[in-house]
Protein backbone atom coordinates (compact mmCIF):
# COMPACT_ATOMS: atom_id res chain seq x y z
CA UNK A 1 0.00 0.00 0.00
CA UNK A 2 1.65 3.28 -1.02
CA UNK A 3 1.84 6.15 1.50
CA UNK A 4 -0.33 9.23 1.22
CA UNK A 5 2.00 10.96 -1.26
CA UNK A 6 2.00 7.76 -3.31
CA UNK A 7 -1.78 7.77 -3.43
CA UNK A 8 -1.98 11.39 -4.60
CA UNK A 9 0.62 10.59 -7.23
CA UNK A 10 -1.35 7.53 -8.26
CA UNK A 11 -4.24 9.89 -8.96
CA UNK A 12 -1.97 12.26 -10.90
CA UNK A 13 -0.78 9.28 -12.94
CA UNK A 14 -4.38 8.36 -13.71
CA UNK A 15 -5.03 11.92 -14.88
CA UNK A 16 -1.99 11.72 -17.14
CA UNK A 17 -3.24 8.50 -18.69
CA UNK A 18 -6.42 10.29 -19.80
CA UNK A 19 -4.30 12.34 -22.19
CA UNK A 20 -2.55 9.37 -23.83
CA UNK A 21 -2.76 9.60 -27.60
CA UNK A 22 -4.03 13.18 -27.64
CA UNK A 23 -0.96 15.32 -26.94
CA UNK A 24 1.68 14.51 -29.59
CA UNK A 25 4.35 15.86 -29.79
CA UNK A 26 3.99 16.78 -26.15
CA UNK A 27 3.90 14.26 -23.29
CA UNK A 28 0.63 13.25 -21.57
CA UNK A 29 1.19 14.70 -18.10
CA UNK A 30 -1.13 14.57 -15.08
CA UNK A 31 -1.19 17.13 -12.27
CA UNK A 32 -3.03 17.44 -8.98
CA UNK A 33 -2.94 20.22 -6.36
CA UNK A 34 -3.62 19.09 -2.80
CA UNK A 35 -4.14 21.24 0.28
CA UNK A 36 -5.15 20.04 3.74
CA UNK A 37 -6.09 16.65 2.33
CA UNK A 38 -8.38 18.06 -0.35
CA UNK A 39 -7.91 18.26 -4.11
CA UNK A 40 -8.01 21.96 -5.00
CA UNK A 41 -7.06 21.57 -8.64
CA UNK A 42 -6.39 18.90 -11.23
CA UNK A 43 -5.52 18.71 -14.86
CA UNK A 44 -3.84 16.91 -17.69
CA UNK A 45 -2.09 18.02 -20.84
CA UNK A 46 -4.77 19.23 -23.24
CA UNK A 47 -5.40 17.94 -26.78
CA UNK A 48 -2.61 18.98 -29.11
CA UNK A 49 -0.25 19.33 -26.13
CA UNK A 50 -1.30 22.67 -24.63
CA UNK A 51 -2.15 24.07 -22.16
CA UNK A 52 0.14 21.95 -20.01
CA UNK A 53 -1.28 19.95 -17.07
CA UNK A 54 -0.06 22.39 -14.39
CA UNK A 55 -1.71 25.36 -16.11
CA UNK A 56 -5.06 23.57 -16.09
CA UNK A 57 -4.75 22.54 -12.42
CA UNK A 58 -3.65 26.04 -11.35
CA UNK A 59 -6.53 27.65 -13.20
CA UNK A 60 -8.96 25.35 -11.40
CA UNK A 61 -7.42 26.04 -7.99
CA UNK A 62 -7.17 29.82 -8.31
CA UNK A 63 -6.22 31.35 -4.93
CA UNK A 64 -6.46 27.91 -3.27
CA UNK A 65 -3.15 26.96 -4.92
CA UNK A 66 -1.32 29.07 -2.33
CA UNK A 67 0.40 26.71 0.12
CA UNK A 68 -0.74 23.60 -1.79
CA UNK A 69 1.34 20.57 -2.78
CA UNK A 70 1.61 19.92 -6.50
CA UNK A 71 1.76 16.26 -7.57
CA UNK A 72 2.88 16.09 -11.17
CA UNK A 73 3.99 13.13 -13.29
CA UNK A 74 6.76 15.03 -15.12
CA UNK A 75 9.15 17.80 -14.14
CA UNK A 76 7.41 21.16 -14.70
CA UNK A 77 8.78 22.87 -17.79
CA UNK A 78 11.25 25.74 -17.51
CA UNK A 79 11.28 27.12 -21.04
CA UNK A 80 9.37 29.81 -22.83
CA UNK A 81 7.95 27.65 -25.61
CA UNK A 82 4.49 28.12 -27.00
CA UNK A 83 3.40 28.68 -23.38
CA UNK A 84 5.23 30.31 -20.43
CA UNK A 85 7.11 27.95 -18.08
CA UNK A 86 4.98 25.87 -15.68
CA UNK A 87 7.70 26.12 -13.01
CA UNK A 88 7.27 29.89 -13.08
CA UNK A 89 3.48 29.59 -12.87
CA UNK A 90 3.77 27.29 -9.83
CA UNK A 91 6.08 29.80 -8.12
CA UNK A 92 3.74 32.68 -8.92
CA UNK A 93 0.75 30.77 -7.56
CA UNK A 94 2.51 30.27 -4.22
CA UNK A 95 2.63 26.47 -4.27
CA UNK A 96 4.55 25.22 -1.20
CA UNK A 97 5.82 21.85 -2.40
CA UNK A 98 6.22 19.98 -5.67
CA UNK A 99 6.30 16.19 -5.84
CA UNK A 100 7.28 15.05 -9.34
CA UNK A 101 7.41 11.44 -10.56
CA UNK A 102 10.28 11.85 -13.05
CA UNK A 103 12.53 14.48 -14.62
CA UNK A 104 11.93 15.81 -18.13
CA UNK A 105 14.74 14.81 -20.55
CA UNK A 106 13.71 17.51 -23.05
CA UNK A 107 16.97 19.51 -23.31
CA UNK A 108 14.97 22.73 -22.83
CA UNK A 109 13.92 21.48 -19.37
CA UNK A 110 16.29 18.71 -18.08
CA UNK A 111 16.58 19.75 -14.44
CA UNK A 112 15.97 23.47 -14.99
CA UNK A 113 12.35 23.13 -13.92
CA UNK A 114 13.35 21.68 -10.54
CA UNK A 115 16.14 24.27 -10.17
CA UNK A 116 13.70 27.11 -10.83
CA UNK A 117 11.31 25.80 -8.15
CA UNK A 118 14.07 25.25 -5.58
CA UNK A 119 15.52 28.70 -6.24
CA UNK A 120 12.14 30.13 -5.27
CA UNK A 121 12.17 28.23 -1.97
CA UNK A 122 9.75 25.48 -3.02
CA UNK A 123 10.44 21.99 -1.58
CA UNK A 124 10.91 19.52 -4.44
CA UNK A 125 10.81 15.71 -4.21
CA UNK A 126 11.32 13.43 -7.21
CA UNK A 127 10.60 9.72 -7.69
CA UNK A 128 7.16 9.03 -6.24
CA UNK A 129 5.14 6.93 -8.71
CA UNK A 130 8.06 6.93 -11.16
CA UNK A 131 7.48 3.46 -12.63
CA UNK A 132 3.88 4.23 -13.54
CA UNK A 133 4.72 7.68 -14.90
CA UNK A 134 7.47 6.19 -17.04
CA UNK A 135 4.94 3.76 -18.47
CA UNK A 136 2.53 6.53 -19.54
CA UNK A 137 5.32 8.81 -20.72
CA UNK A 138 7.32 6.00 -22.39
CA UNK A 139 6.53 7.27 -25.88
CA UNK A 140 7.69 10.81 -25.17
CA UNK A 141 10.78 9.56 -23.31
CA UNK A 142 11.64 7.24 -26.22
CA UNK A 143 11.25 10.01 -28.77
CA UNK A 144 13.36 12.52 -26.84
CA UNK A 145 16.07 10.02 -25.87
CA UNK A 146 16.17 7.66 -28.89
CA UNK A 147 14.47 9.70 -31.63
CA UNK A 148 11.91 7.03 -32.29
CA UNK A 149 8.38 6.42 -31.02
CA UNK A 150 7.44 3.74 -28.56
CA UNK A 151 6.33 0.78 -30.69
CA UNK A 152 3.32 -1.10 -29.34
CA UNK A 153 2.29 -4.22 -31.24
CA UNK A 154 -1.05 -5.97 -31.00
CA UNK A 155 -1.63 -9.48 -32.21
CA UNK A 156 -4.72 -11.72 -32.01
CA UNK A 157 -4.03 -15.45 -32.05
CA UNK A 158 -6.12 -18.61 -32.00
CA UNK A 159 -5.49 -21.33 -29.43
CA UNK A 160 -3.33 -23.11 -32.03
CA UNK A 161 -1.19 -20.02 -32.64
CA UNK A 162 -2.76 -18.87 -35.93
CA UNK A 163 -3.47 -15.27 -36.87
CA UNK A 164 -5.72 -15.87 -39.92
CA UNK A 165 -7.62 -18.80 -41.43
CA UNK A 166 -5.67 -18.33 -44.66
CA UNK A 167 -2.88 -15.97 -45.64
CA UNK A 168 -4.22 -12.71 -47.06
CA UNK A 169 -7.65 -12.95 -45.49
CA UNK A 170 -9.16 -11.29 -42.48
CA UNK A 171 -10.38 -13.65 -39.78
CA UNK A 172 -12.33 -12.49 -36.77
CA UNK A 173 -10.47 -14.42 -34.08
CA UNK A 174 -11.43 -12.62 -30.89
CA UNK A 175 -14.74 -11.38 -29.46
CA UNK A 176 -16.37 -7.99 -28.74
CA UNK A 177 -14.45 -7.31 -25.51
CA UNK A 178 -11.12 -7.73 -27.32
CA UNK A 179 -12.47 -5.50 -30.10
CA UNK A 180 -13.24 -2.77 -27.55
CA UNK A 181 -9.83 -3.15 -25.95
CA UNK A 182 -8.15 -2.82 -29.36
CA UNK A 183 -10.08 0.36 -30.05
CA UNK A 184 -9.00 1.71 -26.66
CA UNK A 185 -5.39 1.00 -27.61
CA UNK A 186 -6.02 2.97 -30.81
CA UNK A 187 -7.41 5.88 -28.79
CA UNK A 188 -4.32 5.88 -26.58
CA UNK A 189 -1.85 5.85 -29.49
CA UNK A 190 -0.64 8.84 -31.49
CA UNK A 191 -0.43 6.76 -34.65
CA UNK A 192 -1.46 3.33 -35.89
CA UNK A 193 0.73 1.51 -38.38
CA UNK A 194 -0.05 -1.38 -40.71
CA UNK A 195 1.60 -2.87 -43.77
CA UNK A 196 0.10 -2.34 -47.23
CA UNK A 197 -0.78 -6.06 -47.39
CA UNK A 198 -3.21 -5.60 -44.52
CA UNK A 199 -4.88 -2.70 -46.35
CA UNK A 200 -5.19 -4.75 -49.53
CA UNK A 201 -6.56 -7.78 -47.67
CA UNK A 202 -8.91 -6.12 -45.18
CA UNK A 203 -9.59 -2.55 -46.39
CA UNK A 204 -9.61 -1.43 -42.74
CA UNK A 205 -10.70 1.92 -41.29
CA UNK A 206 -8.17 1.86 -38.43
CA UNK A 207 -10.20 4.48 -36.58
CA UNK A 208 -11.34 4.38 -32.96
CA UNK A 209 -15.00 3.42 -33.06
CA UNK A 210 -15.77 3.25 -29.36
CA UNK A 211 -19.01 5.18 -28.71
CA UNK A 212 -18.21 8.87 -28.22
CA UNK A 213 -14.52 8.41 -28.92
CA UNK A 214 -14.36 8.86 -32.68
CA UNK A 215 -12.35 12.04 -32.07
CA UNK A 216 -9.62 9.92 -30.51
CA UNK A 217 -8.65 8.18 -33.77
CA UNK A 218 -4.89 8.18 -34.26
CA UNK A 219 -3.04 9.20 -37.41
CA UNK A 220 -3.19 6.18 -39.71
CA UNK A 221 0.15 5.15 -41.17
CA UNK A 222 0.78 2.54 -43.86
CA UNK A 223 4.16 1.05 -44.72
CA UNK A 224 3.72 1.33 -48.48
CA UNK A 225 7.14 1.32 -50.14
CA UNK A 226 5.80 1.62 -53.71
CA UNK A 227 2.81 3.92 -53.11
CA UNK A 228 0.27 1.24 -53.93
CA UNK A 229 -2.44 2.43 -51.51
CA UNK A 230 -5.65 2.16 -53.58
CA UNK A 231 -7.21 5.64 -53.91
CA UNK A 232 -10.63 4.03 -53.29
CA UNK A 233 -9.59 2.24 -50.10
CA UNK A 234 -11.42 3.27 -46.95
CA UNK A 235 -8.18 4.80 -45.66
CA UNK A 236 -7.60 7.02 -48.68
CA UNK A 237 -11.28 7.93 -48.95
CA UNK A 238 -11.41 9.18 -45.35
CA UNK A 239 -7.97 10.84 -45.24
CA UNK A 240 -9.32 14.38 -45.22
CA UNK A 241 -11.14 13.59 -41.92
CA UNK A 242 -8.53 11.39 -40.21
CA UNK A 243 -5.01 11.80 -41.58
CA UNK A 244 -3.22 9.06 -43.50
CA UNK A 245 0.56 9.02 -43.84
CA UNK A 246 2.47 6.64 -46.07
CA UNK A 247 5.98 5.47 -45.26
CA UNK A 248 7.36 5.02 -48.74
CA UNK A 249 10.62 4.84 -50.64
CA UNK A 250 9.22 7.15 -53.32
CA UNK A 251 7.39 10.45 -53.37
CA UNK A 252 4.10 11.11 -55.12
CA UNK A 253 0.49 12.16 -54.77
CA UNK A 254 -2.02 9.47 -53.83
CA UNK A 255 -5.26 11.08 -52.66
CA UNK A 256 -6.36 14.29 -50.92
CA UNK A 257 -5.25 14.28 -47.28
CA UNK A 258 -2.71 11.48 -47.77
CA UNK A 259 0.87 12.58 -47.02
CA UNK A 260 3.96 10.71 -48.06
CA UNK A 261 6.98 10.42 -45.77
CA UNK A 262 9.90 9.43 -47.97
CA UNK A 263 12.12 6.90 -46.19
CA UNK A 264 15.33 5.03 -46.98
CA UNK A 265 14.87 1.61 -48.59
CA UNK A 266 15.80 -1.65 -46.93
CA UNK A 267 17.90 -4.14 -48.95
CA UNK A 268 14.69 -6.01 -49.91
CA UNK A 269 13.19 -2.81 -51.39
CA UNK A 270 10.73 -2.34 -48.53
CA UNK A 271 10.84 0.67 -46.24
CA UNK A 272 13.79 0.83 -43.87
CA UNK A 273 11.88 0.56 -40.61
CA UNK A 274 14.47 2.34 -38.48
CA UNK A 275 14.21 5.31 -40.83
CA UNK A 276 10.41 5.03 -40.97
CA UNK A 277 10.20 5.21 -37.19
CA UNK A 278 12.58 8.16 -37.14
CA UNK A 279 10.39 9.94 -39.68
CA UNK A 280 7.38 9.40 -37.40
CA UNK A 281 9.34 10.73 -34.41
CA UNK A 282 10.28 13.73 -36.54
CA UNK A 283 6.58 14.45 -36.94
CA UNK A 284 6.08 14.35 -33.16
CA UNK A 285 4.64 10.83 -32.90
CA UNK A 286 5.35 9.50 -29.40
CA UNK A 287 3.53 6.17 -29.61
CA UNK A 288 2.68 3.97 -32.56
CA UNK A 289 0.37 0.97 -32.39
CA UNK A 290 1.16 -1.75 -34.94
CA UNK A 291 -1.76 -4.04 -35.75
CA UNK A 292 -0.34 -6.04 -38.66
CA UNK A 293 0.29 -7.65 -40.86
CA UNK A 294 2.34 -10.57 -39.70
CA UNK A 295 5.31 -9.60 -41.89
CA UNK A 296 5.55 -6.05 -40.55
CA UNK A 297 5.24 -7.17 -36.92
CA UNK A 298 7.83 -9.86 -37.55
CA UNK A 299 10.28 -7.40 -39.10
CA UNK A 300 9.84 -5.00 -36.18
CA UNK A 301 10.36 -7.88 -33.78
CA UNK A 302 13.51 -9.11 -35.55
CA UNK A 303 14.94 -5.57 -35.45
CA UNK A 304 14.08 -5.35 -31.73
CA UNK A 305 11.83 -2.31 -32.19
CA UNK A 306 8.83 -3.66 -30.25
CA UNK A 307 8.66 -2.00 -26.82
CA UNK A 308 5.30 -3.35 -25.75
CA UNK A 309 3.25 -6.26 -27.03
CA UNK A 310 -0.43 -7.06 -26.51
CA UNK A 311 -1.36 -10.65 -27.35
CA UNK A 312 -5.08 -11.37 -27.48
CA UNK A 313 -5.62 -15.11 -27.24
CA UNK A 314 -8.85 -16.73 -28.38
CA UNK A 315 -10.13 -20.23 -27.52
CA UNK A 316 -10.90 -20.80 -31.24
CA UNK A 317 -8.89 -23.30 -33.25
CA UNK A 318 -8.12 -22.38 -36.86
CA UNK A 319 -6.36 -25.57 -37.92
CA UNK A 320 -3.09 -26.33 -39.68
CA UNK A 321 -4.03 -24.48 -42.90
CA UNK A 322 -4.15 -21.21 -40.91
CA UNK A 323 -1.39 -18.61 -41.02
CA UNK A 324 1.04 -19.18 -38.13
CA UNK A 325 1.96 -16.24 -35.90
CA UNK A 326 5.71 -16.52 -36.40
CA UNK A 327 8.54 -16.69 -33.88
CA UNK A 328 7.37 -13.70 -31.85
CA UNK A 329 4.70 -15.73 -30.11
CA UNK A 330 7.14 -18.14 -28.50
CA UNK A 331 9.99 -15.68 -28.11
CA UNK A 332 7.92 -12.94 -26.40
CA UNK A 333 7.79 -14.71 -23.05
CA UNK A 334 11.59 -15.09 -23.09
CA UNK A 335 12.56 -11.65 -24.32
CA UNK A 336 9.92 -9.45 -22.65
CA UNK A 337 8.39 -9.06 -19.18
CA UNK A 338 4.76 -10.03 -18.75
CA UNK A 339 3.21 -6.99 -17.01
CA UNK A 340 -0.56 -7.58 -17.18
CA UNK A 341 -3.00 -10.38 -17.90
CA UNK A 342 -6.69 -9.65 -18.45
CA UNK A 343 -9.78 -11.63 -19.27
CA UNK A 344 -11.67 -10.19 -22.25
CA UNK A 345 -14.91 -12.19 -22.41
CA UNK A 346 -13.98 -15.54 -23.94
CA UNK A 347 -10.50 -14.26 -24.75
CA UNK A 348 -7.49 -13.21 -22.70
CA UNK A 349 -4.99 -10.41 -23.15
CA UNK A 350 -1.34 -10.64 -22.12
CA UNK A 351 0.70 -7.45 -22.11
CA UNK A 352 4.47 -7.69 -22.37
CA UNK A 353 7.01 -4.93 -22.04
CA UNK A 354 10.64 -4.58 -22.99
CA UNK A 355 12.93 -5.59 -20.11
CA UNK A 356 14.61 -2.89 -18.03
CA UNK A 357 11.75 -0.38 -18.28
CA UNK A 358 11.35 0.08 -14.53
C1 LIG B 1 4.85 20.37 -18.44
N1 LIG B 1 3.54 20.00 -18.37
O1 LIG B 1 1.70 19.10 -19.26
C2 LIG B 1 3.66 19.06 -20.54
C3 LIG B 1 5.05 19.41 -20.58
O2 LIG B 1 6.02 23.47 -26.91
P1 LIG B 1 5.65 23.66 -25.48
O3 LIG B 1 5.91 25.00 -24.95
O4 LIG B 1 4.24 23.16 -25.20
O5 LIG B 1 6.62 22.71 -24.64
C4 LIG B 1 6.69 21.34 -24.90
C5 LIG B 1 7.61 20.69 -23.90
O6 LIG B 1 7.09 20.87 -22.58
C6 LIG B 1 7.69 19.17 -24.07
O7 LIG B 1 8.72 18.79 -24.94
C7 LIG B 1 7.98 18.72 -22.66
O8 LIG B 1 9.34 18.90 -22.33
C8 LIG B 1 7.16 19.67 -21.85
N2 LIG B 1 5.80 19.14 -21.68
N3 LIG B 1 5.58 20.02 -19.50
O9 LIG B 1 5.36 21.03 -17.53
C9 LIG B 1 2.91 19.37 -19.37
N4 LIG B 1 3.05 18.44 -21.59
ZN1 LIG C 1 4.76 23.30 -18.80
What features would you describe in this structure?
The protein has a nine-stranded mixed sheet, sandwiched between helices. The chain has helices at residues 4-18, 53-61, 86-93, 112-119, 130-136, 138-146, 176-187, 196-202, 234-237, 273-282, 294-302, 328-335; strands spanning 30-35, 38-44, 69-74, 97-102, 123-126, 150-157, 162-164, 191-195, 219-223, 244-248, 258-262, 287-292, 308-313, 323-324, 336-344, 347-354. Helix 3 (86-93) runs parallel beside helix 4 (112-119). The protein has two domains: 4-136, Cytidine Deaminase, domain 2 (3-Layer(aba) Sandwich); 149-354, Dihydrofolate Reductase, subunit A, CATH 3.40.430.10. It is globular, with a radius of gyration of 22 Å. The chain is built from twelve helices and 16 strands. With 358 residues, it is α/β, with parallel strands linked by helices. The site of ligand AOF has 19 residues, from helix 2.
**What is the CATH C-level name of the largest domain?**
Alpha Beta
Count of extended strands: 16
- How would you write the strand order of the largest sheet? 11-10-9-8-12-6-13-16-15
Along the chain, the helix and strand elements come as HEEHEHEHEHHEEHEHEHEEHEHEEHEE
* Total helical segments: 12
Mean pLDDT: 94
Largest sheet: 9 strands, mixed
Second-tier CATH architecture of the largest domain: 3-Layer(aba) Sandwich
- Shape call: globular
Please name the CATH topology of the largest domain: Dihydrofolate Reductase, subunit A
User: Could you give me the name of the CATH homologous superfamily of the largest domain?
Assistant: Dihydrofolate Reductase, subunit A
**What's the number of domains?**
2
Q: Which residues form runs of ≥5 with pLDDT under 50?
A: none
Helix percentage:
25-40%
Distance between the termini: 18 Å
Amino acid sequence: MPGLAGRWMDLANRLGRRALGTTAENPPVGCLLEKDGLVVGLGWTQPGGRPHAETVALAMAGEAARGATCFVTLEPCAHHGKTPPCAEALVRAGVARVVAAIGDPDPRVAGRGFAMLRAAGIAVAVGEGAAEARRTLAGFLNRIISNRPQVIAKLAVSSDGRIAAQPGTETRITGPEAWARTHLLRAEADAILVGLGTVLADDPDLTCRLPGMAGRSPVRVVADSQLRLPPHSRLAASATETPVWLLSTRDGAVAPGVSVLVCAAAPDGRVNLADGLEKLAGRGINTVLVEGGAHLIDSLWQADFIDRLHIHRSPLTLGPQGLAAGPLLTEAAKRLNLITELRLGEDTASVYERRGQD
